[in-house]
């Protein structure tokens, strides 16, 4: 932070609100632009890739709150994502069946079906954050490798439990007449996965949620909470000595990260061509997000986003790559740890590498110059 | 009663496998203070090497490699066992030398991430066509499938037998001998003293003239040899082998790790105790409650132990210093 940031201009309340809302408005405008311009220029195949990259970015940025900013090591992030996916998916699937009689997509852009989908995604986030709280609790007593194992165990347990769930009930009449015991089996598809969720996920919603996630993460990082998290990462004992409630910071990190992972899971569940299944909760998928955070830089939001884009694009660049994908990821991970353990960007954001002259607009004086 | 005894015997055999694997985790943790995630892949390596050796060695004595009618001569089985042990300890040595030694002074988290990287690398390289391939295989029998004991329980229609197969005895005996050898090595020899010194305080051990790097290399080699032995015995007991990156192997490694934590990580005797506890919880839970949730019991036990006594049953509390 440079000295100019500290200088506070006396401004009116309305201007302040407008200023703080600007990034999110810009983000949503961008999402609208992507929604209406991208598919017509690059075609459906690449649009789908852009959706995948967006969801990967939401997950990587949220994992970065735990792994990068707070310095914990969670390898169960896909577990939170899956909880969100199943929650959101069952909400839209069963409510659509009950309200409209069919689980197909209902309404057009920003229509009633889409709003139900948004609410479902948020509910997915909430259930995931409850799970985040439960998984975060052991982190108060464990550190480093133990925590990694607990989060890994959480993902595996979730996978096993989801495999035991009941068959999907896909008929409105059956649901109305079914005895309550049908729902005791949690009808979300068992081992074969949850098929038939309406496909609401569009570029707009993915990028709107991404904008919210990124702006939240960035502001968190600059807030007192975020700084407390960073201090836990740097040295837990020293942070405690400085009066930081490290337990609370760690729990908060887990809860927020799980919330956004749950939202990302909701988006994934409603993506066309995706059938969520218990396998998603396993550690292989968690590992994909871990490598994004490690590669991007621990704590660097833009770095992690860049890594997420790169790693989502890699399989497309290298055809017949699937077999070697994990090998390359693993080799990359080892190589990074041996040569540049702080990740590509370290703790910096992408604009920290720009020349200084780019950061201030030429016609705008810095507050300090104005004061003089 | 019959079911109880049968479950008990299975639990003892599987428990000794967990204990063998857990010893490797606990020894590495003892000296380097990090979880060697790649340890479970050494078990996989041991299992698949046993398979590769077996299908190449069986034709030499005129047996069908995939469906031998009789087991091969005992020297061949023993030879495969020794070769697997040797190659696994070589793999352990190389992993430590190439991936972990450059990170000796790095933060623990970096070493952990590297270990996960090594683990995934080994798994997926193992899946390549020119290594072990990505399809499940059936391990040919290397031991006669004798039943040492067959005790009847009950009468008439409801008669049940408790069967003690040879392989369970061999697993129990071989792991018991290996653990005894390790125990003697660690507590009765000069090398063991050096090892314990390194584990206690690496810097001071170095000041006392102990070659720390060599001790750590040897720890890895010992642990990996035990893991290789566990892999060999595992496929003799369960001949249907999954491909190297299958989650069954990962879970096997994780359960052994849980065993090490339950017993108190860094404590050699604790690892053995933990291995048996985990096997008992898993087998009896699977038999008496529901076999669908067998992994859930193990992980619940882990979380319980970590919340109640994070240092494990036999572990000593570690005070944190600034």
Shape of chain B: globular
What pattern of helices and strands is seen along the backbone of chain A? Answer: HHHHHHHHHHHHHHHH
Strand content of chain B: 5-15%
What's the quaternary structure here?
A: heterodimer
* N- and C-termini, Cα separation of chain A: 21 Å
Total beta strands of chain A? 0
Shape of chain A: globular
Radius of gyration of chain B: 20 Å
Radius of gyration of chain A, taken over Cα atoms and rounded to an integer in Å: 22 Å
Number of helices of chain A: 16
Mean pLDDT of chain B equals 87
CATH class of the domain at 30-282 in chain A: Mainly Alpha
Strand content of chain A: under 5%
Write out the strand line-up for the largest beta sheet of chain B, numbering strands in chain order. 1-4
Notes on the structure:
The complex is a heterodimer of chains A (372) and B (322). Chain A is built from 16 helices and no strands. Chain A is mainly alpha-helical and 372 residues long. Chain A has a domain at 30-282: ABC transporter involved in vitamin B12 uptake, BtuC. In chain A, α3 (77-100) runs antiparallel to α4 (112-139), α9 crosses α11 and α12 (283-296) crosses α14. The mean pLDDT of chain A is 84. With 322 residues, chain B is mainly α. Chain B contains 11 helices and 4 strands. In chain B, a hairpin with a 6-residue loop joins β2 (147-153) and β3 (160-165). Chain B is globular, with a radius of gyration of 20 Å. The N and C termini of chain B lie far apart (55 Å). The model of chain B has no long low-confidence stretch (mean pLDDT 87). Chains A and B meet through α5, α12 and α14 of A and α4, α9 and α11 of B.
